[in-house]
Amino acid sequence: MVGARHGRLLPVAALLVAACFSLLLLPPAAAVDELDGSGREAQRNTERISGSAGDVLEDNPVGKLKVFVYDLPSKYNKRLVTKDPRCLNHMFAAEIFMHRFLLSSAVRTVNPEEADWFYAPVYTTCDLTRAGLPLPFKSPRMMRSAIQFISKRWPFWNRTDGGDHFFVAPHDFAACFHYQEENAIARGILPLLRRATLVQTFGQKNHVCLKEGSITIPPFAPPQKMQAHLIPPDTPRSIFVYFRGLFYDNGNDPEGGYYAR
């Protein structure tokens, strides 16, 4: 059973990584769903961009994978974005755009009985301070509430204890839900998620906040910013790549620990 599940994990990993890279390359009109005045989905630019992840994806999940997207109350997702649209532009916005991507994806099924995987769209990083920084302190309670809702309304969570479900947890230390490493380690991954698959930007190996089977994706960058910083491939560079490493952030970590990598 473990081997079969691992085999099914490969196409979903390919799908999710391809989705994120494609979102980084798409122009804003294609990356963000908008509604017109009548409430209908506005026409979107769906022109394919050469060089996107879809052009090089060999393990195409279409036809091999079916994902059921839970229809959760808007308090877990859309209402948060309406309240604070800044969530659409910060580095943790993958949770929003992954949801939108899957809603229109060819792998989505509206019949949960035929689904291989179940996705719960919970926006745990869309509670922002005035400065635009996400506050993860309510995230565990929010995630527990969403799982409780799912387990009472549908039978699928209880059937596997979440083993065929996945969540996007893009915060600094993923489902440990804290921006300071020492506190994140002490808190650990939310126990309810112990069998679920986590899609996260945190990918440090041998760390409490990265459990086996997690899928690591790149942080989100607004497409308009990516397009504005594109340079011709033949442009001479004096520095090919720059790695900053550990740094001290007094604003996020006033106690003096290292904030990020």
UniProtKB/TrEMBL annotation:
GO terms for cellular component: Golgi membrane. The keyword Signal applies. Residues 1-31 form the signal peptide. It is a single-pass type II membrane protein. Pfam families: Exostosin_GT47 (PF03016). It comes from the Eukaryota. Residues 64-247 form the Exostosin GT47 domain. One of its GO terms (biological process) is glucuronoxylan biosynthetic process. GO terms for molecular function: glycosyltransferase activity. It is found in: Golgi apparatus membrane. Keywords: Glycosyltransferase, Golgi apparatus, Signal, Signal-anchor, Transferase, Transmembrane. Belongs to the glycosyltransferase 47 family. This is Exostosin GT47 domain-containing protein.
